Amino acid sequence: MSLDADAVKKIAYLARLKIDEADVPVYANNLSNIIDLVEQMNAVNTDGVVPMSHPLDAVQRLRDDVVTEINQREIFQAIAPKTEDGLYLVPQVIE
Amino acid sequence: MSYDTSKWEVVIGLEIHCQLATRSKIFSGASTAYGAEPNTQACAVDLALPGVLPVFNKEALRLAVKFGLAVEAEIGMRSVFDRKNYFYPDSPKAYQITQMDHPIVGKGHMDIELENGETKRIGITRAHLEEDAGKSMHGSYHGMTGIDLNRAGTPLIEIVSEPDMRSAKEAVAYMKKIHSLVRYIEISDGNMQEGSFRCDANVSVRPHGQKEFGTRAELKNINSFRFVEKAINIEIERQIDVIEDGGKVIQETRLYDADKNETRSMRSKEEANDYRYFPDPDLLPVVIDEAYIEQIRKELPELPEQKKQRYMAEYELSAYDAAVITTSRELAAYFETVAKECGDAKLSANWVTGELAARLNKEELEITESKVDAEAFAGLLKRIKDNTISGKIAKDVFEAMWQGEGSADQVIESKGLKQITDSSAIEAMVDEVIANNPAQFAELKGGKDKMMGFFVGQIMKASGGKANPGQVNQLMQKKLKD
Predict the structure, then answer these.
(1) Structural domain spans, chain A
(2) What is the number of other CB atoms lying within 10 angstroms of the CB of residue B84?
(3) Alpha helices, DSSP H only, in B141-272?
(4) Phi/psi of residue B197, nearest 5 degrees
């Protein structure tokens, strides 16, 4: 499978990465090579193999349902670019 | 509903988001209590500060499994958290932790009652654990948007149905059933105003007989039963108009505007609709065993459907009454106390679903806020049962009890409402009414049976409603034979 220029641009947009138009063919080629490498896996018979969802052979530890955090808003908001009325202010998003 | 149901078939599936009743968040130790000052319950994990790691809340898991068992679903013995990637300021990580391929709850089902009395089974595709996002506030911030992350990281289960519903009414019936269930099994407070229970509806239309589904639109974030019905119906009409005008419905996300009663496209979500899910490397697979599941199964209370069946068998209630009474656990408990105390389940059902329900409805009260408690209510029904008062007088007594005038016996006593059962007293009234209406009595004797109602009515009136109607009837029959 190979990625075309549009696919590369879409991926860049979804990840909010700014890329130069001139670099697009290079990215397309490099990414396609990676996908080709991964696709070699398709040749292997994986019937009955449980898909690996984590490289560690371990299971999730659980936390008791207890409130352990105190209000630290002032500390957190000290590093925020802009706050008001306890809210974080961000560039306007409108639906 | 103003579309042609003989021509068009509607297909609806719902995704219900239900907040789990935990004290702390799904992956952090911050509080989930509602109504706190903005961002005072958003900790470093919720804010996605560098270096933090999520740790899964034990209680969220237990509540999700409890739901799965209640809808007779397959439980995921090994479930996996995934990242759903998107950029939006209410989600500081730029992804939501959710479950994709291995959810905690698999295929299950929920039965709903249709208007014609039939039962229909709605398939539940899956229910998965995920975290909620924060809240955006628009306006009055110098052209910027304010973000409150208290909600971020609140545990949810998203309950996904099969596209099994065929009208807005069915969708509402299903949503109400799920709402009732989550409160029954105490996994959620189901508070819709506070956003603890809300749904997205996938709606499409197709001509009857067509096999393939039409293109669907997704209606986002509807948080009341009334809006679900209105939003779906207005969307159905829109889609039919588009098709009948020769157009094509496009797959998109739409927002319901209750003020304008219309749905409109949310274009901003379109381009980002590629979430690139992958397993979250910060979380390991969640593995549970049979013993754990059995433990939770034991904690399940009698479910609404089981209760309904029991009421029909044990108390001989109609399916309708049994369904109404079992919609909430508190109402069912109230009914059971009344039935036990007064010893007449059918009378109890009639009065609980009738007079009491109407009164609660009128004053927008929950059963737990009733001004007449179950014992006092049973006291009233006892007096109907032992003929101290008629059903009609009982309504007045109930009204007085509601106004805080005391128990049924106190009200009956102080207002002198006791039914007259002394037959000589009633006979005197019967004789008087006959004497005052000789012409009508002659007609009755001559075979005009309709006159009977007139006489019973007059005698009841003369007694101030306190005569026993059965006794009045008997005495009149006797007078006719004399």
Answers:
(1) 5-43
(2) 17
(3) 168-184, 225-244, 268-271
(4) -150, 115
Half-sphere exposure of B26 (CA within 13 A, CB side): 25
More confident of the two residues A36 and B463: A36
Other Cβ atoms closer than 10 A to B227: 19
State ipTM: 0.90
Contact B61 A61 (CB under 8 A): no
Q: CA A68 to CA B240: how far, in whole Å?
A: 53
Q: Are B232 and B258 in contact (CB under 8 A)?
A: no
pLDDT of residue B273: 67
B1, pLDDT greater than 60: no
Query: Which residues on A lie below 8 Å from B147 (Cβ)?
Result: 87-90
Contacts of B30 in chain A (CB under 8 A): 67, 69
At CA B333, angle to CA B119 and CA B368, rounded to 5?
105
CB half-sphere exposure, A79, CA atoms < 13 A: 6
| Token code pair at residue B320 | 């309708």
Please tell me the distance from the alpha carbon of residue B173 to that of residue B307, in angstroms, as a whole number: 18
Q: Quick one: residue B177, left, alpha or beta (phi over 0 = left, psi -120 to 50 = alpha)? A: alpha
Would you state the pLDDT for residue A95? 54
Q: What is the pTM of this model?
A: 0.82
Please say whether the beta carbons of B151 and B92 come within 8 A.
Answer: no
Which architecture characterizes domain A5-43 according to CATH?
Orthogonal Bundle (1.10)
- Smallest CA–CA distance, residue B153 to chain A, in Å, is 13
Question: Which residues in chain B are closer than 8 Å to A58, comparing Cβ atoms?
Answer: 284
